[in-house]
Amino acid sequence: MKPEHTRVPVLPPNAHLDGDCRGVASVLARVGDKWSVFVIMQLGGGPRRFNELKRMIGGISQRMLTLTLRGLERDGLVTRTVFPTIPPRVDYELTDLGRGLSTPVKALGAWAHEHQPEIESARTRFDGRNAAE
Amino acid sequence: MKPEHTRVPVLPPNAHLDGDCRGVASVLARVGDKWSVFVIMQLGGGPRRFNELKRMIGGISQRMLTLTLRGLERDGLVTRTVFPTIPPRVDYELTDLGRGLSTPVKALGAWAHEHQPEIESARTRFDGRNAAE
């Protein structure tokens, strides 16, 4: 018998996500974070400085951008390069790994953008049905 | 001046995710939820009953599977069909919208699965560097 509440799901051999699902889940968590997605998409256009990114992604706080970039750097998706100018210039750039991830992330972003009205109206219908019950 | 902490990011016109980012973020949140992803992938193989899904996705509790299916149904990604047998049979199936989403989700899952060792070792290196500092 399998325990009911193990944290790591065990998928059957025919599942697409077989093998180490804990790692897969942690990558999905990164992609589920909208700030990481927006940073990855902006860096798709080439290296950017911190303040450029902050300007491009309206609504992100200094602290949240710092945390997001640090998480992406830790995952090996982004490099941080300090140029010894005065004041020091800091560039962020996608690694090859990050560029690879940006392809499926862009496809997902495009799907989300395209189908967002359908999802919105499905939600409205669902909530209306359930309120009527 | 823009407020620092608005919840909905405003991206510049050249951004891929321009337009209604709130909706896009909510779709990404769904995809960032590993249980939703696992259910979408399992239903890619055709309609399934509740208990089949529960068996296929080891480690998911009854309650979490119920909540996940309800969220997917609300988003218009999954249909729930009750057959008036005794006991009633309940089938879950991807809608056309859900099948459309499963394509980029599978690509992302495949990427995550393939590159998970690289990400793991990047994390170990990063943590080692930062512990040494």
Largest beta sheet: strand ordering of chain A: 1-3-2
CA-CA gap between termini of chain A: 38 Å
How many β strands of chain A by DSSP? 3
Multimeric organization: homodimer
Q: Per CATH, what is the topology of chain A? A: Arc Repressor Mutant, subunit A
CATH architecture descriptor of chain A: Orthogonal Bundle
Give the number of domains of chain A.
1
What's the main sheet of chain A like?
3 strands, antiparallel
Strand content of chain A: 5-15%
What is the name of the CATH class of chain A?
A: Mainly Alpha
Q: Judging from the principal axes of the Cα atoms, what is the shape of chain A?
A: elongated
Q: Can you identify the CATH superfamily of chain A?
A: Winged helix-like DNA-binding domain superfamily/Winged helix DNA-binding domain
As residue ranges, the low-confidence spans of chain A are 1-19
The topology string of helices and strands of chain A comes to HHEHHEEH
SS content category of chain A: mainly alpha
Average pLDDT metric of chain A: 81
Radius of gyration of chain A: 19 Å
Helical segment tally of chain A?
A: 5
Greatest interface: A-B, 74 and 73 residues
